[in-house]
Specification:
Largest sheet: 5 strands, parallel
Low-confidence stretches: none
Number of strands: 18
Helix content: 25-40%
Radius of gyration: 27 Å
Strand order of the largest sheet: 11-14-17-10-18
Structural class: alpha/beta
């Protein structure tokens, strides 16, 4: 037999796609040609595969070998095809019967000694194979626990090429995936740690209940960072679909620890203010990889000291915040990564970061406006809740922690409000009020009475509120009504939503 094929998979952005690795052995000058839009890592697979086969005790066929990666119009990248290529070549040479690999997904990089090494993105590739009816997979031992997270997939692990060829010949068994350890039960930051700041606590609760973006302004030590860090503790755990999606993104980025369990807690990303545009939204040569924005998908992206970020980096967030997707174009193609995040901005009032009225603060009003102005108006217009936090008083700082409301208590109210919103918007396919299109809220069924929205309409007419801001105030009002157990917002909820939008409650 001079032809053989093995099933593999490639990554196309955040999703996988099945690839058939074909090998044809013909008479002619010995050599290997790889077709099907391979990248440099795949072209170099020829030497890795040759060394791995000979060092595993197999015979390298002295024939002209053509390896094709089908579909040929899909760009292939990475070293995850090595094991499939080696098995296809051995099958094409007639030394290895491949009946045992019919309908089996095979992934893995080969070392020169024949060892099978882990690769990135195994979870989304195995998930894609499962969606297309594949029920069995062979993956590197280091990726086995990750691949086993896919429901309905029978996963077996390999540590060497010898073990795989022995399995195909019926001489030995493959390895079972290692047991996934239970997730660490490290204590999460608790809202009870925050002294005072009732306004900030309200803003965080409303943001968690409705999936709203949040901006916190105030002097150092006011608790801006503490409040932002405790937002994930108020969010519900991820369901199976969301958990697989988030875990797959971390796998693609190469930040998923070997043997890590499914990510169930909403992720929290807090890049430093020196972060580049590529590290924030995604990038890299060839084909872009996920950045902090996508790694925070279904969770929280916090930008502390927001005015210190570059203006370009901040403004790249504008389109993804609207669409929930970041689309990146590079020389080898365009990829789209999900980016449904809750953005939290934290900023001091001026460059010297002293409280307003402090005699040591030499910042002029113009300097203060210019400093906050580093956060562009269009970006701030996308922030639903914008709060000015006062300094913490001594009376608040020394209160007993048991008198402060803990995250667990607030999380129960958040879960109830989210369940109410999910039931209301079930036909739209959205999970919370922050995702509801403004056009829906203005339709007859959900439109609020004119006497309730009078102040909102006035601000829109005089230009102190944009059309986008109008819709975002409505979303926050619906969240407030859900937290209060009301059927729909009234004038009080609209008033509070407006004040949360404009800075502080009166």
């Amino acid at each position: 037999m001079s032809y053989a094929k093995v099933l593999c998979a490639a990554l196309e952005g955040a999703t996988g796609q099945l690839v058939r690795v074909e090998a044809d052995l013909a008479l002619g000058l010995p050599g290997v040609v790889v077709t099907g839009l391979p990248d440099t890592a795949l072209n170099e697979a020829r030497e890795r595969v040759r060394a791995a086969i000979t060092n595993s005790g197999e015979t390298w066929p002295q024939r002209r070998i053509t390896v094709n990666l089908d579909p040929a119009d899909l760009r292939k990248r990475g070293s995850g095809f090595d094991l499939s290529v080696a098995l296809a070549i051995l099958g094409g040479s007639g030394t290895l019967p491949l009946v045992a690999l019919d309908g089996v997904l095979v992934l893995g990089e080969l070392g020169l000694d024949g060892s099978v090494r882990p690769v990135r993105g195994v979870l989304p590739m195995v998930a894609a194979a499962a969606r297309q009816g594949v029920t069995r997979a062979i993956v590197p031992l280091g990726n086995a626990a990750e691949a086993a997270l896919v429901p309905g997939m029978q996963v077996r692990a390999a540590d060497t090429l010898n073990r795989v060829t022995g399995f195909v010949r019926g001489r030995c068994a493959l390895l079972d995936p290692p047991d996934v350890p239970p997730p660490a039960t490290a204590a999460e930051p608790d809202l009870a740690d925050v002294a005072g700041q009732e306004l900030g606590r309200l803003g965080v609760e409303v943001a968690a209940a409705g999936g709203h973006h949040l901006a916190l302004f105030g002097p150092p030590g006011a608790g801006k960072t503490m409040l932002a860090q405790r937002l994930p503790s108020l969010l519900p755990r991820l369901d199976d679909e969301a958990a697989l999606e988030v875990t797959a993104l971390h796998s693609i980025a190469g930040v998923l620890a070997p043997g890590a369990p499914l990510i169930r807690r909403p992720p929290f990303q807090a890049p430093h203010h020196t972060a580049s545009v590529a590290s924030l939204v995604g990038g890299g040569s060839g084909l872009a990889r996920p950045g902090a924005l996508s790694l925070a998908h279904r969770g929280v992206l916090m930008l502390d000291e927001a005015p210190e970020f570059s203006r370009q980096a901040l403004d790249t967030l504008r389109q993804p915040l609207e669409d929930g997707v970041v689309t990146l174009g590079r020389t080898r193609g365009i990829v789209a990564y999900p980016a449904q995040v809750q953005l939290v901005l934290a900023a001091n009032p001026c460059p010297c970061a002293r409280p307003v009225g402090d005699a040591a603060c030499a910042c002029s009003p113009h300097s203060r406006r210019r400093y906050i102005g580093r956060i562009s108006g269009p970006l701030l217009d996308r922030i639903d809740i914008q709060l000015q936090l006062p300094p913490v008083k001594a009376a608040h700082l020394f209160t007993d922690l048991t008198t402060r409301e803990a995250s667990g208590t607030v999380a129960q109210r958040v879960a109830a409000a989210r369940a109410t919103a999910a039931a209301r918007w079930t036909g739209l396919g959205v999970r919370c009020n922050g995702e509801v299109p403004g056009t829906v809220l203005r339709q007859r069924r959900w439109r609020l009475p004119d006497e309730v929205t009078a102040e909102l309409r006035h601000r829109l007419d005089v230009g102190t509120l944009s059309a986008r801001g109008h819709d975002r105030v409505l979303r926050v009002a619906w969240t407030l009504s859900d937290l209060a157990g009301l059927d729909r917002p009234g004038a009080a909820e609209l008033n509070i939503a407006l004040q949360l939008r404009t800075g502080a409650l009166t």
